[in-house]
Amino acid sequence: MEGDCLSCMKYLMFLFNFFIFLGGACLLGLGIWVIVDPTGFREIVAANPLLFTGAYIMLAMGAMLFLLGFLGCCGAIRENKCLLLFFFMFILLIFLAELSAAILAFIFRENLTREFFTKELKKHYQRNNDTDVFSSTWNSVMITFACCGVNGPEDFEAVPHLPYSSLERAVPEACCQRELQSREGMFVNKEACLSGIERFQNRQGCYTVILNSFETYVYLAGALAIGVLAIELFAMIFAMCLFRGIQ
Q1: Which PROSITE patterns does the UniProt entry name for this protein (predicted)?
Q2: For residue 41, how many other CB atoms are within 10 A of its CB?
Q3: CA distance 170 to 180
Q4: Is the pTM of this model over 0.70?
């Protein structure tokens, strides 16, 4: 009976580590996609230090989980006590790091409010000055999501115009409607847009557009994170049970 129980734990351990292996592969693939994606996100990520760091953290985390799942599978099948102990300590560190990151994200969630982004936009945005990282990032966001400002075009009333851009009186060029939502896309009517004709402008604020676009994915990511934490917890329990059961 004891041998059957040990065998059951061994294969359950293998199963949980296989899921960790798959989760790591997904994170690794997602991190690579965010960095190399050619549809506008790459430019946004590269221009924002926080997003740039986050993308590489995702890559590193995916690589660690990928390797960890592989080692856990090997340790379970071969019943190697040293490998199982290393696996337990390693996954415990990752578990605590993920839990800490979730707690910090909850604590600092107020920095992602509409008011915060509006204040930063009015303070730092320089319209078509693409040599400025902040402005270039916002222009890429507005072009990619076909939106304007945080709340709408009214956000730019307090934003100064560039000396060489006398035509740009109402909204920045990035708020003008395009046939294709990319920097290479042709304007529907650029002159009319910059002159203040609303039907040639993107009137909806980016905060609402992005929130609606990613709302489903945020809940999916949260559910996935909870699932990963649960799998890691069960993997640690099975690792210790298997470690104690190996003679």
Answers
A1: TM4_1
A2: 18
A3: 22
A4: no
Judged by average pLDDT, the poorest of 6-10, 46-50, 95-99, 227-231 is 46-50
Question: Where is average pLDDT lowest: 47-56, 109-118, 216-225?
Answer: 47-56
More confident: 247 or 27: 27
In what helix (H) or strand (E) does residue 18 lie, and over which residues does it extend?
helix 2-36
Q: Tell me: pLDDT of 182 over 80.
A: no
**At CA 232, angle to CA 98 and CA 61, rounded to 5?**
45
Alpha-carbon 220 to chain mean position: 12
Q: How far apart are CA 19 and CA 55, in angstroms?
A: 22
Residues 6+ apart with CB under 8 A from 188: 176, 177, 178, 179, 200
Please give the distance of CA 60 from its chain centroid, rounded to a whole number: 14
CA angle (221 as vertex; 220, 224 as ends), nearest 5:
85
Distances (CA, A) of 169 to 26, 136, 143, 153: 46, 19, 18, 11
Gap between the Cα atoms of 95 and 228, Å rounded: 9
Is pLDDT at 162 greater than 60 in this prediction? no
- Identify whether the C-beta of residue 196 lies closer than 8 Å to the C-beta of residue 157: no
- Of 245, 153, 242, 142, give the one whose Cα is nearest residue 185: 142
List residues bridging with 176 in a β-sheet: 201
